[in-house]
């Protein structure tokens, strides 16, 4: 692997100097991260830890291994829930490079819930693909690499975007630091053991040529160290033997197996490069050759520099390990495939990759969990890992606080495993078609946006409006269908909601309300009085939920009081339309901390039944 010197300042000159997060030279300066205002902050302060509060306890109850996006999201989700963490990474420096830059719409929603809006603001839509046949300089018709969903009020993030992984990680680290939580680089997990009460980890801190051993005891451990933790420092001839030994340790301690296949027909070298070429534009993603044979793609990115590109070299017969170690070989291959006059300025970093389309057979054992435990392609890997972390950590926070039974953590495995399994089947089929035909058309699949992912099959979701059908296919990884909505689906957005209680009137959106440190109960009712009996019965849950009444646009807005934390009038009908509710109907939705609908019920008894599956007796 070829790597340039690490840097914390990431150049993004494509953004104008008027952007408040940039100085005139285009480098990141100290970012002031905004926080959404809850309609009644006093009702949620029981779990919302202030960034000014020092949460760096001597013995944090959670150790997170790996400080890529998955580990950082796990850490931030727990910190937002008031749970201190320790996060380590074996690399001595923060990683540089675009790496896995694709961010899908569902992940953008989760970053929004985590109150990290600058990720969406800094990211750019995927450019169109401009393909050239080998030996010609005439491009074919432009193609989309990922689908664009029709924007609606229910879908605020409707297109896949790209943002360099180094910049994504930097943004997330800045948020951790507001909780006095800092990534410990150069710190490796060497081994661990666990009991019913704790996890004991042996850590190695590298200082120059010396290694300092530390025994660290914690209550929970989350592994988020990715697929290439072993390969980045081993010779290829040693990889299979050493990786088998590595996985053997995990199997012995957690009983995990990796299921799937390694595809020798998908072998690539990828990295960041600076070059100039009059025949290339900086608008499109340009590909030369064919995925069925040999190809190189170049995606312009000003994050690397005004002459910066992310490149991907693909060829089943390439010696990718040798190429990744040689700047000159990379230059020569790009020049031979592009067949235009190119000036190579600098190779920033490069690495090799082969498609290991695998997943673990389970995501946890005892007090140890793995996130980022599947290796799909098509811009799904990092995104699925982030969604794994989000699913796990709101549950872990409730258990750590003593509010939920430890058995709740078993649903991390039962909810995520079918989704990842289905995802691997879909993405593998798409890749196989591309490698066989050289065509990219099947990548334009709306399922890749990840908005249709659901867990309707979960034991902890409850839907009183749906009759179970024996033998009905689960299909947890699919395109979004906004004509149906069941418990286990993502909760839709609804903008332009008129906030009429408490306090002065203003306009907000439902996504302003959804946060990873509480459940949100939405009572759709024709009048405030219709919701009163339901709200009264929810008093026992006030420490773990915020409740709201959603009134139709036809409801009279007169002075009133309510037991709810907020009352909103759906003045343009977006909420009633997205949640499929009639104006005369009373219907209750429980939105989980991960933005998934946990329950759709008739009233208070249904809410109690749902929380009996989540919480200890309150």
Question: How are the elements arranged and paired?
Answer:
Layout: E1 2-3, E2 62-65, H1 69-80, E3 85-88, E4 102-103, H2 105-113, H3 118-122, E5 124-125, E6 129-132, E7 161-162, H4 165-177, E8 187-194, E9 199-207, E10 210-218, E11 220-223, H5 236-254, E12 258-276, E13 285-289, E14 294-300, E15 308-315, H6 320-324, H7 327-338, E16 343-360, E17 364-365, E18 368-370, H8 381-400, H9 410-437, E19 462-463, E20 497-501, E21 506-508, E22 519-524, H10 528-536, E23 545-552, E24 566-570, H11 574-578, E25 587-591, E26 597-601, H12 604-612
Parallel strand pairs: 2-3, 2-11, 6-13, 11-18, 19-26, 22-23, 23-24
Antiparallel strand pairs: 1-16, 4-7, 5-7, 8-9, 9-10, 12-15, 12-16, 13-14, 14-15, 17-18, 20-21, 20-24, 22-25, 25-26
Helix pairs in contact: 1-4, 1-8
Pfam families: FAD_binding_3 (PF01494)
InterPro entries: FAD-bd (IPR002938), FAD/NAD-bd_sf (IPR036188), PHOX_C_sf (IPR038220), RIFMO-like (IPR050641), Ubi_Hdrlase_CS (IPR018168)
Domain FAD-binding: 61-425
List keywords for this structure.
7-stranded mixed beta sheet, 26 strands, FAD, Ubi_Hdrlase_CS, Glutaredoxin, alpha/beta, FAD/NAD(P)-binding domain, globular, 618 residues, RIFMO-like, FAD-binding domain-containing protein
């Amino acid at each position: 692997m070829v790597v340039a010197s690490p840097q914390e300042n990431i150049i993004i000159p494509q953004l104008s100097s008027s952007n408040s997060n940039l100085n005139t030279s285009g480098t990141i300066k100290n970012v002031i991260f905004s926080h959404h205002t809850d309609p009644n902050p006093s009702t949620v302060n029981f779990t919302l830890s202030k960034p000014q509060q020092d949460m760096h306890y001597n013995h944090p109850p959670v150790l997170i291994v790996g400080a890529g996006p998955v580990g950082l999201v796990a850490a931030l989700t727990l910190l937002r829930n008031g749970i201190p963490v320790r996060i380590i990474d074996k690399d001595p420096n923060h990683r540089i490079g675009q790496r896995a830059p694709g961010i899908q719409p569902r992940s953008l929603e989760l970053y929004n819930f985590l109150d990290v809006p600058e990720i969406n603001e800094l990211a750019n839509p995927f450019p169109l693909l401009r393909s050239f046949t080998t030996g010609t300089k005439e491009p074919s018709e432009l193609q989309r690499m990922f689908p664009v969903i029709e924007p609606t009020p229910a879908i605020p993030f409707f297109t896949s975007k790209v943002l360099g992984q180094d910049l994504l990680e930097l943004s997330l680290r800045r948020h951790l630091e507001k909780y006095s939580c800092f990534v410990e680089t150069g710190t490796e997990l060497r081994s661990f053991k666990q009991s019913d009460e704790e996890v004991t980890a042996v850590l190695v801190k590298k200082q120059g040529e010396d290694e300092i051993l530390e025994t660290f005891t914690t209550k929970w451990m989350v592994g988020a160290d990715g697929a290439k933790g072993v390969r980045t420092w081993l010779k290829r001839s040693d990889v299979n033997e050493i990786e088998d030994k590595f996985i053997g340790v995990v199997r012995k301690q957690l009983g995990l197996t990796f299921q799937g296949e390694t595809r020798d027909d998908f072998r690539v070298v990828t990295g960041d490069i600076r070059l100039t070429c009059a025949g290339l534009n900086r608008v499109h993603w340009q590909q030369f050759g064919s995925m069925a044979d040999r190809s190189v793609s170049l995606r312009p990115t000003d994050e690397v520099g005004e002459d910066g590109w992310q490149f991907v070299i693909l060829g089943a017969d390439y010696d990718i390990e040798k190429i990744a170690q040689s700047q000159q070989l990379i230059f020569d291959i790009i020049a031979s495939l592009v067949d235009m006059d190119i000036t190579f300025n600098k190779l920033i970093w490069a690495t090799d990759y082969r498609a290991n389309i695998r997943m673990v057979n389970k995501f946890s054992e005892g007090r140890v969990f793995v996130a980022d435990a599947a290796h799909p392609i098509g811009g799904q890997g990092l995104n699925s890992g982030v969604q794994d972390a989000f699913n796990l950590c709101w549950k872990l926070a409730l258990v750590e606080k003593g509010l939920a039974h430890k058995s709740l953590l078993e649903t991390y495995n039962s909810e995520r495993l079918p989704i990842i399994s289905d995802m691997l089947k879909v993405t593998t089929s798409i890749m196989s078609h591309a490698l066989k035909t050289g065509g990219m058309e099947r990548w334009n699949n709306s399922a890749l946006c990840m908005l249709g992912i659901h867990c309707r099959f979960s034991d902890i979701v409850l839907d009183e409006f749906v009759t179970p059908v024996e033998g009905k296919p689960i299909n947890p990884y699919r395109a979004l269908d906004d004509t149906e909505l069941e418990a286990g689906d993502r909760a839709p957005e609804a903008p332009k909601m008129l906030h009429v209680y408490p306090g002065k009137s203003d306009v907000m959106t439902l996504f302003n309300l959804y946060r990873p440190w509480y459940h949100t109960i939405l009572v759709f009712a024709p009048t405030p009085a219709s919701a009163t009996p339901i709200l009264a019965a929810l008093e026992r849950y006030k420490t773990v939920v915020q409740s709201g009444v959603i009134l139709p646009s036809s409801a009279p807005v007169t002075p009133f009081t309510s037991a709810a934390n907020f009352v909103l009038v759906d003045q343009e009908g977006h909420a009633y339309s997205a949640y499929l509710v009639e104006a005369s109907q009373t219907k209750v939705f429980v939105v989980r901390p991960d933005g998934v609908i946990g329950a759709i019920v008739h009233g208070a008894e249904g809410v109690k039944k749902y929380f009996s599956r989540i919480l200890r007796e309150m």
